[in-house]
Structure prediction request, 528 residues.
Amino acid sequence: MRRIFLSFIYCFLMRTFLKLIVGVNYRNKEVLKKTKQFIIVANHNSHVDAMALMSAIPSAKIKHVHPVAAGDYFGKSPFKAFVTRLFVNALLIPRSRPVEGEGPDPVQMMVAMLDKGESLILFPEGSRGEPGKMQKFKKGIAFLLEKHPEIPFVPAYMQGMGKILPKGDAVLVPFNSYVIFGEPEFCISTDPEKIVMQVENSILSLQPNKVS
Amino acid sequence: MFSIEKFQQNHDLFIVIALIFGILIFATLLFSIWGMLRPEANLGELKARTRSWWVMATIFVSATVFNPVISFVAFAFLSFAALRELIPISKNVRESDRRTLVWCYLSVPVQYYIAYQGWYGAFLIFIPVFMFLWIPFMLVVNGDTKDISRSMGVLPTQLMFCVFGISHLAYLLSLPEIEGFQAGGRGLLLFLVFITEMNDVFQFTWGKLFGKFKIIPKVSPNKTWEGFIGGVLSTTIVGYFLYFLTPLTPLQAMGVSFIVAVTGFIGDVVVSAIKRDVGVKDTGAAIPGHGGILDRIDSLATTAPVFFHIVYFLAY
Prediction:
């Protein structure tokens, strides 16, 4: 039931809307079909990002893919949290804990998901940045890949999303934009710093130099 | 509404559609045999172009043959997609213009609705007069005056190309019927699109075969005098034989084809110049082997209004 619901929203409605009206172009999204379990890591500029990535997921898998979202933003009220979970299939994590060591550990929550065989969509920048500029990556992704070195990460570079719906604006404007997936990769190091570097470089290497 | 029966009685249209698919079959066979005989020849681009032509011809012909509403929606979408492709590559459109862009996009359905209703006067003034005033006003309301005159210049120009120009294709279908002229608006539409696209192909082919002297090397290094003259002459001759699709005399049809061929060249180089300015070769990648949608319809954006108004003057 849940699979049909999510497939209908993303693989049909959202995909058609994004491709025909908004003008999102996908590159190499077949990699998601070939890979069983994965962590998609991408740059983050807009609320459209998670929608665009979810629409690329093959319908057979969509139930098992969870975008990781900021609990302090999307989970402000129980209703907002419910809606985000229902429509985006999101995993809500607290971005910061009031007191260190108190409350649920965000990394543990993500690891628990991966343990169950679920896939994640992660924006290691932590929050939406300036359009066209990538912020420094947070370390969370490194801890996940360290715990689960057998799960590959799929780098994705998104271009132009910040122009469709930038931070702080509510008007959605069509714009020719790109979602480019790279090949799945396994982390080659156990050092969190190096893992973050690898992920960051994989995403940046997908950057097309054609359109600015 | 469903006019396939009427279409079957209309032999003129049938001949041209058969001709279009005949040419496509011929080209497909030619390239695959050529590729088999000479595997070293680099035909990848030509083959990709032919494949795209198949898809476009099928969509275009089916939209023309069946319900006219489908044609209007298809053309409106074409305008919208071309506009969406042109805006990201224009560096003169500022970040703060995004709300004004919404008005640009909204003008598409309005213009096509007017075309569908056949309101001739409104059709002619909506973009060049009304939007020409409204867009600068909306830019002013937005409040960012730095470089505002650039946006005021660029946005209405893009609307003229992508929306006003292309919508003339659709308006051909709203033209009143003329007694004794069987092919009607569909005939004119087929004539225009066929002539314009053949002109592109002719100019490309003549240029490839005999091209030597460049016309505007700074803008479009592939455009040569041989390609231009050969293309214009071939198109003029083809136009002469297709006169039966128009309410014109054979001689008039020849003259119109000549003008369409020259205008098609103009549209092509103008979009090339825009692309050169921003430093991209193809405006998008929606159609494989063809660059973007705009790369295919750049010549139609200029030929459609010119053709429309000449025919309107001569026959309506």
About this structure: DSSP finds nine helices and seven strands in chain A. Residues 22 and 64 of chain A are 26 Å apart (CA to CA).
